[in-house]
Amino acid sequence: MSRLLTLLAIAAFAASASAATLNVKDFGAKGDGLTLDTPAIQTAIDTAARSGDTVMFAPGTYLTGSIFVKSHVTLRIDKNVTLLGSQHLSDYPIMPTRIAGIEMSWPAALINIYRQSNASIEGEGTIDGDGKIFWDSYWNLRKGYEPRGLRWAADYDAQRPRLIQIFDSTHIHLGGGLKLRRSGFWTVHIVYSSNVTVDGITIRNNEGGRGPSTDGIDIDSSIHILVQHADIAVNDDALCLKAGRDSDGLRVNRPTEDVVLRDSIVRDGAAVITIGSETSGGFRNIEAYNLTGLGHVGVGILFKSAHTRGGWAENIRIHDITLIDVPVVFRITMNWNPSYSYARIPAGITNYPAYWKVLATPVPDDQGRAHFHDVHISNIKATGAKTAFEIDAFPELRLDQFTFKHLQIEATTAGHIADAKDWTFSDVTLHTTDGSVVALSDDRNIIGIASREAPPNKPTSATKSFAEQDKN
């Protein structure tokens, strides 16, 4: 990973270099929180692009729709500056992108770096999506969709702007102390991009409500990505790797690879680190370390896919993770959220958008099973957990070649591992208050872990290494 980090450091330096500084107020921006400043901000950016300049804001609140940062431009959002997202969907132009694993047209994000290079968004100011109106529109739509068997369509039909989109771009820097708030949908979406650094951002999406699918940082079919010094509170996945959904993801077939996630804290969200559920293009050379998860986070390490996703994951290294009061330490599921994951158009519905057909395109069984292997997890410390392991895959395609080293877990119960092959555990201590050990089923060659449930008369508290449990 040293070459990756060197390249990203060079990219960050190049993106921050500029010849002059332009103030958006000189282009007509008001910064009063009431006037729509989109045209003035965009004119300043377009002017700066001619010479590779920096665009800055005087203190104030700038109401805006979608803006587009151009190559060689630094968008500097200083302290006491807020970019406030418009609540009118018409202020976010529809354009080609990828959303939740499929290519389709969708509203642009509040801030976009779209097919550009050597650009930067930085500063200690705030980017506020003011997204509750979009959260409410989603719930209203979903309420009508679920009884009709259309839960899966709600996330695509309820168009909601992301906060920041980095699309098909290279050598991009985002950070410097930015605070990102109340995104209408995903907060930072990095898709089809390379050599991107996210360094020093705070995400707070659960202010004034809990927005659906307000992911933190989604890295989607991208390569050479570094995320560090993030402080995240969201209502879904916090640090998430994606690579396409079902037939469309298999068609695109672009992996996410050479990614480093480090030195960050997750205070609220579905999981600290997630791979999936969009797994179709695969994952390779992923390293996550020095991450902390706190009690409002649901899962520590989460891998999720579905029977129709396909794809693979290999050479995954996750280490030096601290979890405090996180309910589930490890969860792997290959049948995640069926009502969302499996798109079926109900009989009698004939007038629907083209992307429904894409979502409902069948995937052959031999292409639909994701294969996760060569995963290395070490130096995990978890206290206050409810369950240590919730692992399920396919008997016909097991999770294979996982290694676990130096685990210290305190949990209510041990949990289960199913459909695993060639797993090795070493230097692992599991303290379960119900005295249970890990239950195994449909597994082959699991070394260093007990393979039975604890008997009913087991003590209510037990602290044993897996090696000790094997002796009983």
Fold and architecture overview:
With 472 residues, the chain is α/β, with parallel strands linked by helices. The chain has a single domain (67-470), classed as Pectate Lyase C-like. 16% of the residues lie in helices and 48% in strands. It has 9 helices and 29 strands. The chain has helices spanning 2-16, 38-49, 132-145, 151-157, 246-252, 338-341, 354-360, 365-368, 466-470, and strands at 21-23, 32-36, 54-56, 60-64, 67-68, 74-76, 81-85, 94-99, 102-107, 111-114, 117-122, 126-128, 164-167, 170-181, 188-191, 194-204, 217-220, 223-233, 239-242, 256-275, 283-304, 312-324, 328-333, 371-392, 399-418, 420-432, 439-441, 444-447, 462-465. The strands form 2 sheets. It has a 27-stranded mixed beta sheet that branches. It has a two-stranded antiparallel ribbon with strand order 8-9. Helix 5 (246-252) links the parallel strand 19 (239-242) and strand 20. The chain is globular and about 70 Å long. It starts with a helix and ends with a helix. The model is unreliable at 9-18 and 451-472 (pLDDT under 50).
Our measurement of the CA-to-CA distance between the termini, rounded to an integer number of angstroms, reads 42 Å
| Envelope shape | globular
Task: Label the CATH architecture.
Answer: 3 Solenoid
Quickly name the level 1 CATH class: Mainly Beta
Which percent range fits the helix content? 10-25%
Instruction: Provide the number of structural domains.
Output: 1
Strand content: over 45%
Summarize the biggest pleated sheet: 27 strands, mixed
CATH superfamily: Single-stranded right-handed beta-helix, Pectin lyase-like
Overall SS class: alpha/beta
Radius of gyration: 23 Å
